[in-house]
Design brief:
Length: about 70
């Protein structure tokens, strides 16, 4: 049984300086989606629709649900 989880992140409007800082400090090129949600200043994030753990690396809610079905 395969499954997938979709998570959408909506950011606040960011300045060029904030974006440049993020690129330097968060190393976006080693991440799928180019952001490390756990590395960002929380005030930059307007909304997370879905699983935050999915963005970080593994959708724990969905994995736990699937394991419970075994």
């Amino acid at each position: 049984d395969t499954f997938y989880v979709v998570t959408t992140i909506c950011f606040q409007e960011l300045s060029e300086e904030q974006i440049e800082t993020s690129v330097v400090e968060c190393q976006p090129l080693d991440k799928c989606g180019a952001n490390g949600l756990h590395e960002l200043d929380e005030s930059w994030i307007k909304e997370v629709d879905g699983s935050s753990s999915n963005v970080i690396g593994l959708p724990m809610e969905a994995v736990t649900e699937r394991l419970a079905m075994l």
